[in-house]
Amino acid sequence: MFIRKPAVVSMLIAGAAALLAAGLALTGPSAPPSGPSVADELKACTVFLIGKGASADGSVMSTHAADCGVCDFTWRHVPAAVHRPGAKRKLYHIDHFVLDRRAARWAFDYVDFHVQVAYNAAIRDVEEARKTWEDAAVLRTMEIDERDLELYKKNPREAVKFLTGYCLNNAKSVVDAWWKLGDDLWVKYNHLNLCNPGTRRSGRIPTADPPWWDRAVRGFDVLAEPDRK
């Protein structure tokens, strides 16, 4: 692929938005890649976002083929430049057999794992967290767009820097929040109990079962009690 400079704002905006929406490794652009190179059979699952100012003929190109569960979900930015025809960038992948707290993908899987232990109750915690972060981002969208537009009119580079920084910081905050949510779920529903660290008390996990089922469970608990001598 032949790409010329300079890359326009659309390329970085699209890239930042993709980073926010996907499960990605949030290592900084200067952090050296680690791990073995991605297997040849997985290279087909690659996403490209190319703005009209970054392509040789002014075309806007977008491909999306990341449809597998063991693909490379890292985000790598290739700086705008005049690249030689046929120039390539080496791809790296996340080790799916080693927990990596730098990877957003692992944060989401971490929460998912703990939700399955007590789904009826734990999914409410996830919905509350989603509402907190998603609603806040939606409410700020108009404000961020207006600020970025004003910056763009004065200095396009500063506009790119502002929007990219906002998206990266927001993505990192969400990933950090999801790691904490996973830890909280682990403690809250430990040993299939409903634990409250504040009161240091635990009890039965509330369920979505009908009242008659809850009464039956309580009756079974009584029947299962050992005989008193």
If you had to describe this structure to a student in words, what would you say it looks like?
The chain is mainly alpha-helical. Helix content is about 45%, strand content about 5%. The protein is built from five helices and four strands. Helix 2 (about 105-115) packs parallel to helix 4 (about 155-190) and helix 3 packs antiparallel against helix 4. The longest helix is centred in the middle third of the chain and has 36 residues, at about 120-155. It is elongated, with a radius of gyration of 24 Å. Mean pLDDT is about 75; it is low at about 1-40.
Topology diagram in text:
Elements: H1 9-21, E1 48-50, E2 61-63, H2 104-115, H3 119-154, H4 156-188, E3 194-196, E4 201-203, H5 211-223
Antiparallel strand pairs: 1-2, 3-4
Helix pairs in contact: 1-4, 2-4, 3-4
Features:
229 residues; mainly alpha; two-stranded antiparallel sheet; elongated; disordered N terminus
What structural category characterises the helix and strand content? mainly alpha
Termini separation:
83 Å
Helix content: 40-55%
- The value of Rg in angstroms is 24 Å
Give, in order, the helices and strands. Answer: HEEHHHEEH
The overall pLDDT average reads 75
Uncertain segments of ≥5 residues (pLDDT<50)? Answer: 1-38
The outline comes out as: elongated
* Total of DSSP H or I helical runs spanning 4+ residues: 5
